[in-house]
Structure formats: structure tokens, C-alpha cells
Amino acid sequence: MAKKSLAQEAREHKNMRLEDIEVLFRSYQEGIEMDDLQSQIDDLKEDIKEAIADKDREYASELKQELKEVQKRYDALDEAGYSFVEYGLSFDYVPGNTDYNPDAGYFRYQLSWGGPSEEFRFYTDPQFNVYTIEFWYLVWFDGKGIKLTGDDFQLMEEIFEFFNEIGSVESEYEKEMGY
Question: What is the C-alpha to C-alpha distance for residues 40 and 19, in angstroms, rounded to an integer?
Fold first, then answer.
């Protein structure tokens, strides 16, 4: 089996992280916990049995699809073992124009650290409006960034707004800039 390229690994990790984040964040927004999902699963299984007994294949098929989606959310929450607010390691600001980071400053949502590390970088204007979001996959002395677009960008922009609404954006910026 051929070894995966850094770009392939980065894409796979980005996709896995975005899937986890979406499930966790949507569940957090909706106030849904695993017990709620388990109840939904149990109810859907009973409804499917009744639809099959009533020979209503179309309704049973719709219920099976709904069960698949609820089970996917339950499995993702179970696998992550976290709630959304416990998922990442940190949210902070990395100033630009420094020896460490000669490029533009950015907000970092760090998900893992060490080898490999994974993080989302949010580039904003002075009013903290996001204009670019990147996923970074970092391994020893190497890394690959992927610019987000479309639904991926929209999801992570919502995550940034969450951090903004709870005061983390301004607080982390001021802390790092010495205000």
C-alpha cells in the first residue's frame, strides 16, 4: 500500500474534523444530548415496526432514513466523547508580523497538539469579520493548509461567531496584543 501524501492526509483529517464539529455544534445549538437521541432511536425503531406491520413501505423507508441520520449523530457524539464546548484544546490569537509568524495574525481553534497537530485559522479584518478560514494539518517540520470554501467555510464561520458571541475573540486578541 502506498504511503499517503501530506495533502491527502490533510484532506482526510479536515473532513473528519468538520464532520465531528458539525454534529457536535448542531447538537449543542439544539440542546440535544445522547439520552435524547437514544429516545429518538427507540421511538423510530418502534414506528418502523408499525409501518412494516401496516405494509406502508414508503413511510417505513422515510423512517429508516431518519433513523440513519439520528444514529449517525448519536454515533458521532458517542465517538467524540465530548460536547462541543469540550471538543477543542484552545481558541487563541496568534499575532502577525513577528519572528514566530511573519504573516498576518489569525485566530486559532486548536484541536490537537503534538505530532500531528490540527487547527483552524481564522483571518479577520480589524472588526473581526472573517474573510479566510484555513484548516492546518501539522506534522514534524512540515504542514499543509487547506483554504475552506462553501459549506465548510460557512460552518466554521458559525463556529467563529460562537467564539465571538461568548467574548473569546475580543478577549484573546486583547490578551495577545497587551491591551
Answer: 21
Contacts of 155 (CB under 8 A, 6+ apart): 18, 21, 22, 25
d(CA 148, CA 18): 11
The stretches of the chain forming alpha helices (DSSP H) are 6-30, 34-53, 57-80, 84-87, 150-165, 168-177
The whole-angstrom separation of Cα 159 and Cα 7 is 24
CB 28 within 8 A of CB 85: yes
Mean pLDDT across the chain, nearest whole number? Answer: 91
Centre a 10 Å sphere on the Cβ of residue 83 and count the other Cβ atoms it contains: 14
Does pLDDT of 128 surpass 90?
A: yes
- Domain boundaries along the sequence of the chain: 6-84, 88-177
pLDDT score, position 167: 96
Q: What percent of the chain has pLDDT over 90?
A: 65
Q: Taking the chain, what is the end-to-end CA distance rounded to the nearest angstrom?
A: 53
What is residue 14's predicted lDDT score, i.e. its pLDDT?
96
The whole-number pLDDT of residue 72 equals 85
- Whether residue 120 contacts residue 108, with contact meaning beta carbons closer than 8 Å, is answered with yes
